[in-house]
């Protein structure tokens, strides 16, 4: 694939990744329709990494990290950015080779670059999840995170999922040779209406930076955090048998939406600087407790590997 | 005599774990081989990022056949007993022999353990070593249940002798041992077969893998030094980084690059830390100016452009990193120059420990204690207070937030830039010292005052809230803090009675029983002191003897005593003095126990009957006259010398004089005299604690 032409835009890199992983048998999913801090939060990763059923997905996930906002001025930092996420369960024995193939697909020539797998164990205290793996370096730059999930939501992963996360902006800037993210071509630079990343996102970065740091109403955020927490618990406290249909319907996903919501509210509160160091741990623990409840519920569902007739 | 070759090929093993894993593989396999009755001539193990390898030379081809004789029950024992014996011994009835024993005629079983082929033994033990391997962290992958540091892909296991090589047949979770491996991930990915260790190492090298970590490290060091030298520069030595980098590559290719001129004015420590921590780059400095001007990175492959693309990429990443560092440095300088104390103020929002309040509150306490301690260590109290107040200011700086390991050093830079005198700025760095048993101990009085105050505040705080180290758990490094205080005191000859500040500080934290907590803390110090002095060759019983004396919270005094006592005890006079002391003490204690009285009324020379007795009276008086002023002057060597002079008179006394005289008056007088021996000899240290 080294003869392949270099991509010329941000979107071409995304399209090539989509095509590559589709060819390798992944279901190409769409982004989750909620505010999340990372692609891992998508239920297609968090929940589907649990249970025994095989799973293979790839998707782009817009991600928000309110504290990273820099009003669009920093060449590398954004409060809203894109992650490309691949999850395959069970992790195939050739996952490293598959991954390297994806780098070739986006124009990184293995014969000219120095690719390294450097120890980096992944842990998400809010999801109660951890795994072992590496950060992948290309010529000294971290281009992906490569993780074998060991535990999610407090549950051991059996079988183990292999997870790949690409920070799309950083990777694309490297491949395209761009120094400032806002200068990166978004679509074909020869298109009639050629757009740069900044055309799409400079203004939003400014707006959200102001909102995240100074304007978001902390009382409302706090209330929403608590409402989401209560709602998550309430949903999961419902009877497994739906009284209307008489079916066994455990609402793991709706409950997990509330967990995602609480997590994002916490991130916003953090960016507003109203959470002290000691309180921080408390909030993280509360989100983790929700994630654990959702994981407990999910493994009781069919998608979570629960066999019909398994329950009395 | 066959040789064993074992290779465990996996995905990338963390660099920091490789050396120990290779050692573990060697000891676990060779121990198991020996346990199974095999012998071997030598063994060596190796690690690369993707493989652990073990070679065992001169292995015995099989384990010896052994015969064991086991005695059984009498021939007329109940049938059940005989059956049980047969089962336990695993032999049949007709194989039993009988023999006349002191119990009568008994059965004897001869149990023969047939020797086993080395291959069979290896096929059994290697899977067990793999399954129980002591990785610091291990994982599962795919649908399997095997644990390894990262997914294990293949196992090569060969026994080689004159007849050739054969695979040792076994499998571990569907991985079947074979004779094949592969080379470098990119430059030698093809699979190839191996016949022997020599063949293995040579073929690996052809496939761009250097098996030996030290060979990779040497190549990196040599190449990098040469490159630096050729440019008129000097590579900054960093053994830890060298070992790590050698664990990240199978085929090291050294590349040297420029640091952008924009960044050359950053403090060298900032450049070095940023490059090392984030990029694993070596620093290259200009020996004339001491500035770091270039970096060395180590790639894992050869490229057609001789690394130009790789180097350009690394340079770009470094520029981004250093732009951050420069941004932090410049922002920090702005704050430091305008008012560095605002950093200390903002530490009000940083919790030191939930029950011990904020960092700012802690700094205020340290400043007061430092001012209190200042006169004792020869520093100015106001200066000590001032230095303590800015010593931790850098904890609020952006640079230290990014690189916590630069705390203190940055503080020193910033304080100097803020216009503080060099000795005050130095406190920011030096008050953390000594960080470990081999770290330097500060000697500048201001630094000593703040360093002591910092550590005493921490220790008294944690004692006040009853969060003491237990067993291996010492999350706040309190043992290190106590050792730090001990070394600061001893190295600088600081005369400080610790009890008073311990009690007042613990009380100030609101502890319920401050005296008890302070006493407990002092005994913690005494334990650390014993460990510290034992490493310096001072006997633990000598320290115990000195710790039993008054003033044991003045550690400098305790150690001065201990050194004087140990010096005398190692002479012949000293050894005999102890014997005499012990004899006097034993007789006295027994007599006091028997008579139910204490003989402490003072002996009177007029009841002395022998010359030896009178000589002892005179000698004791002389010893006291010499020892008392010496003790008052804390000249323990002189005091011990005075006591050592008693050795002759005491020996003479015990040789000629019977303590238990017929006359009760004489006997009591002599017992009182013994008490005077014990009392006088105990002036420097409690000699009853000296072990014989």
Describe the protein's architecture and organization.
The complex is a heterodimer of chains A (312) and B (692). With 312 residues, chain A is an alpha+beta fold. Helix content of chain A is 38%, strand content 19%. Chain A has helices at 10-23, 43-46, 95-105, 168-176, 197-215, 218-237, 252-271, 277-298; strands spanning 27-28, 55-64, 80-89, 115-119, 122-124, 129-138, 141-152, 155-156, 162-167. Chain A is globular. Chain B starts with a strand and ends in an 11-residue tail after the last helix. The mean pLDDT of chain B is 92. Chains A and B meet through strand 4, strand 6 and strand 7 of A and helix 8 of B.
Q: Write down how many β-strands of chain A occur, each being a DSSP E stretch of 2 or more residues.
A: 9
Give average pLDDT of chain A, whole number. Answer: 93
What gap, in angstroms, lies between the N and C termini of chain A? 54 Å
DSSP strand tally of chain B: 18
Mean pLDDT of chain B: 92
Quick structural overview:
The complex is a heterodimer of chains A (312) and B (692). Chain A has 312 residues and is an alpha+beta fold.
How is this fold's topology laid out?
The complex is a heterodimer of chains A (312) and B (692).
Chain A: H1 10-23, E1 27-28, H2 43-46, E2 55-64, E3 80-89, H3 95-105, E4 115-119, E5 122-124, E6 129-138, E7 141-152, E8 155-156, E9 162-167, H4 168-176, H5 197-215, H6 218-237, H7 252-271, H8 277-298
Parallel strand pairs in A: 1-2
Antiparallel strand pairs in A: 2-3, 3-9, 4-6, 5-6, 6-7, 7-8, 7-9
Helix pairs in contact in A: 6-7, 6-8, 7-8
Chain B: E1 3-10, H1 15-35, E2 42-48, E3 51-57, E4 66-74, H2 79-89, E5 97-101, E6 104-113, H3 118-131, E7 152-161, E8 164-167, E9 171-172, E10 175-176, E11 180-182, E12 191-193, H4 197-206, H5 213-230, E13 234-235, H6 239-246, E14 253-258, H7 268-279, E15 282-285, E16 292-299, H8 308-339, H9 341-346, E17 351-353, E18 357-358, H10 359-377, H11 381-391, H12 398-402, H13 409-417, H14 422-430, H15 445-464, H16 478-492, H17 499-508, H18 514-535, H19 540-547, H20 555-569, H21 572-595, H22 611-632, H23 636-644, H24 647-656, H25 664-681
Antiparallel strand pairs in B: 1-3, 1-7, 2-3, 4-6, 5-6, 7-8, 9-10, 11-12, 13-15, 14-16, 15-16, 17-18
Helix pairs in contact in B: 1-3, 5-6, 7-8, 10-11, 10-15, 11-14, 11-15, 13-14, 14-15, 15-16, 15-17, 15-18, 16-18, 17-18, 18-19, 19-20, 20-23, 21-24, 21-25, 22-23, 22-24, 22-25
């Amino acid at each position: 694939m080294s003869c392949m032409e270099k991509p010329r835009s941000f979107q071409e890199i995304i399209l090539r990744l989509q095509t590559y992983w589709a060819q390798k048998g992944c279901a190409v999913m769409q982004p989750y329709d909620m505010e999340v801090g990372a692609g891992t939060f998508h239920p297609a990763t968090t929940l589907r990494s649990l249970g025994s059923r095989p799973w293979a997905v790839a998707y782009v996930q817009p991600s928000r990290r309110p504290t990273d906002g820099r009003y669009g001025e920093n060449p590398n930092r954004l409060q809203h950015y894109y992650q490309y996420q691949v999850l395959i369960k069970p992790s195939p024995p050739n996952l490293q080779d598959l991954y390297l193939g994806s780098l070739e697909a986006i124009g990184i020539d293995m014969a000219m670059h120095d690719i390294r797998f450097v120890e980096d164990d992944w842990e998400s205290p809010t999801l109660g999840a951890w795994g072992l793996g590496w950060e992948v370096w290309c010529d000294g730059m971290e281009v992906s995170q490569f993780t074998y999930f060991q535990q999610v939501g407090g549950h051991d992963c059996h079988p183990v999922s292999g997870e790949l996360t690409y920070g799309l902006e950083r990777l694309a800037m490297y491949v395209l040779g761009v120094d400032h993210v806002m200068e990166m071509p978004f679509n074909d630079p020869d298109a009639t209406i050629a757009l740069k990343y900044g055309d799409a996102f400079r203004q939003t970065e400014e707006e959200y930076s102001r909102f995240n740091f100074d304007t978001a109403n902390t009382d409302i955020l706090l209330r929403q955090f608590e409402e989401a927490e209560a709602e998550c618990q309430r949903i999961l406290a419902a009877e497994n048998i739906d009284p209307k249909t008489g079916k066994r319907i455990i609402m793991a996903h709706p409950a997990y939406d509330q967990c995602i919501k609480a997590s994002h509210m916490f991130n916003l509160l953090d960016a507003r600087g109203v959470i002290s160091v000691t309180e921080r741990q408390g909030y993280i623990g509360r989100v983790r407790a929700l994630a654990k409840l959702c994981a407990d519920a999910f493994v009781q569902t069919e998608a979570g590997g629960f066999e019909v007739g398994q329950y009395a | 005599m066959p040789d064993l070759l074992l290779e465990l090929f996996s995905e990338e093993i963390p660099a920091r774990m490789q050396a120990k894993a290779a050692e573990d593989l060697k000891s676990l396999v060779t121990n198991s081989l020996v346990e199974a009755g095999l012998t071997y001539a030598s063994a060596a193990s190796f690690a690369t990022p993707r493989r652990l390898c073990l070679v065992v030379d001169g292995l015995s081809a099989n384990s010896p056949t052994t015969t064991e004789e086991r005695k059984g029950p009498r021939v007329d024992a109940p049938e059940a007993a005989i059956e049980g014996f047969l089962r336990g011994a695993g032999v049949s009835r007709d194989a039993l022999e009988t023999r006349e024993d002191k119990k009568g005629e008994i059965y004897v079983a001869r149990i023969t353990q047939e020797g086993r082929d080395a291959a069979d033994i290896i096929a059994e033990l290697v899977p067990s070593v793999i399954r129980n391997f002591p990785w610091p962290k291990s994982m599962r992958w795919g649908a399997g249940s095997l644990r390894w540091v990262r997914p294990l892909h293949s196992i090569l296991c060969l026994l080689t002798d004159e007849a050739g090589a054969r695979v040792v047949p076994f499998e571990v979770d569907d991985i079947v041992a074979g004779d094949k491996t592969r080379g470098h991930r990119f430059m030698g990915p093809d699979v190839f077969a191996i016949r022997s260790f020599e063949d293995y190492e040579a073929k690996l090298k052809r496939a761009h893998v250097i098996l030996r970590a030290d060979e990779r490290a040497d190549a990196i060091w040599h190449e990098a030094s040469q490159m630096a030298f050729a440019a008129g520069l000097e590579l900054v030595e960093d053994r830890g980084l060298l070992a790590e980098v050698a664990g990240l590559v199978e085929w090291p290719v050294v590349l040297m690059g420029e640091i952008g001129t924009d960044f050359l004015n950053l403090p060298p420590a900032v450049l070095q830390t940023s490059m090392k921590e984030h990029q694993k780059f070596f620093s290259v400095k200009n020996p004339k100016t001491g500035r770091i001007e270039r970096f060395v990175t180590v790639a894992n492959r050869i490229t057609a452009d001789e690394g130009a693309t790789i180097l350009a990429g690394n340079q770009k990443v470094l520029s981004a990193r250093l732009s951050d560092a420069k941004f932090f440095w410049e922002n920090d300088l702005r704050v430091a120059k305008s008012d560095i104390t605002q950093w200390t103020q903002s530490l009000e929002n940083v919790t030191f420990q939930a029950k011990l309040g904020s960092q700012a509150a802690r700094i205020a306490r340290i400043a007061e204690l430092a001012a209190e301690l200042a006169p004792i260590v020869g520093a100015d109290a106001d200066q000590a207070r001032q230095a303590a107040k800015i010593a931790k200011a850098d904890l609020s700086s952006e640079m230290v937030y990014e690189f916590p390991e630069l705390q203190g050093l940055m503080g020193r830079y910033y304080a100097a830039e803020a216009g503080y005198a060099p000795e005050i700025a130095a406190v920011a760095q030096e008050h953390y010292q000594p960080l470990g048993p081999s770290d330097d101990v500060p000697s500048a009085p201001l630094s000593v005052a703040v360093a002591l105050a910092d550590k005493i505040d921490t220790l008294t705080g944690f004692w006040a809230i009853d969060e003491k180290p237990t067993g291996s758990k010492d999350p706040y490094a309190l043992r290190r803090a106590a050792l730090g205080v001990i070394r600061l005191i001893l190295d600088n000859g600081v005369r400080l009675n610790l009890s008073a500040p311990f009690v007042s500080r613990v009380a100030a934290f609101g502890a319920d029983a401050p005296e008890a907590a302070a006493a407990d803390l002092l005994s913690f110090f005494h334990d650390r002191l014993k460990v510290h002095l034992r490493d310096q060759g001072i006997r633990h019983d000598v320290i115990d003897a000195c710790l039993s004396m008054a003033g044991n919270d003045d550690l400098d005094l305790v150690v001065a005593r201990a050194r004087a006592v140990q010096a005398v005890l190692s002479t012949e006079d000293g050894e005999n003095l102890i014997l005499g002391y012990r004899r006097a003490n034993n007789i006295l204690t027994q007599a006091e126990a028997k008579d139910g009285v204490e003989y402490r009324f003072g002996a009177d020379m007029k009841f002395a009957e022998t010359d030896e007795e009178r000589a002892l009276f005179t000698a004791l008086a002389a010893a006291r006259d010499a020892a008392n002023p010496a003790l008052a002057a804390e000249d323990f060597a002189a005091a011990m010398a005075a006591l050592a002079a008693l050795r002759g008179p005491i020996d003479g006394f015990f040789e000629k004089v019977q303590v238990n005289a017929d006359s009760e008056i004489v006997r009591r007088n002599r017992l009182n005299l013994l008490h005077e021996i014990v009392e006088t000899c105990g002036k420097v240290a409690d000699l009853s604690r000296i072990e014989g």
